[in-house]
Fold this sequence. Notes:
Helix content is 57%, strand content 12%. The chain is α/β, with parallel strands linked by helices. Strands 3-2-1-4-5 form a five-stranded mixed beta sheet, with helices on both faces. Helix 2 (91-99) links the parallel strand 1 and strand 2. Helix 1 packs antiparallel against helix 5 (215-291) and helix 4 (139-154) packs across helix 5 (215-291).
Amino acid sequence: MANTRDIRRRIKSIRNTAQITKAMQMVAASKMRRAQQSALAGRPYAALMNKVLVSLQRRTDANLHPLLEIRPVRKELVLIISTDKGLAGALNTNLFREVTQFEVDKTAFVVAGRKARQFVARTKREFMADFELKDAPSFVETKAIARFCAEKFLDREVDKVSVAYTHFINTISQRPVVETLLPISQFDLGVKTGAPADLDRDKDPLVGYLFEPTPEAVLDFMLPYYLQYQVYQMILDARASEHSARMVAMKNATDNANEFIKDLTLEYNKMRQASITTELLEIATAQMALGS
């Protein structure tokens, strides 16, 4: 049974741990606010870009563009966007659970994040490239990832490119998702699947706008840029999810440590009280024995 010295030592150790988790919680909260603002600020721009692409798709034969080519999938490339550090709750575990659904023999992996690199190496999956990103990456830094994936698709080394990342919903909720990056499907451009563009009942969202020099030239320029921005937005979502999950995890750890300290302090006080009571009884018994 633990004595008072052991309990004091445990209380001190847990209090030090609580101080560390509290500091990590504050750091994560500071980063979380900036990451959330970046992730949410980019969504209206992505929606407007999608609207432009929908309009371009209706004015051109978009199926002729190589980034839109749908072909039988013999080899798939999966980009995994994970965290570099742990202590983010079940964020990476849930993400890797989605990744395990891919067939090992038909899938190659590109990773952005130390945890994803360790996962691919540990599970002995085909590893194609590794990209290191800053905590708050810029659009220019993420373009290399999209360019690498596009080159593998255009060179026909892979027939499909997917991205596994954690979609940011709010501070409490983050959902691991797998989205198709290439080929850019008609559904991504806002056209009903299985329906020709000229039969689509939806109207052109940019009626009255003209594209110069031609809609085909604008589409040829926009699709690679759209691809790059999609990857950038996914990375922003992943970063916002990471800092949110870490802040919540560290807050829970701090609260649990404080509760544990309260329980140990109560146990310590009970043991001290029992020890004092025992000593008083021994003194009283000794006095009675001497008096008799």
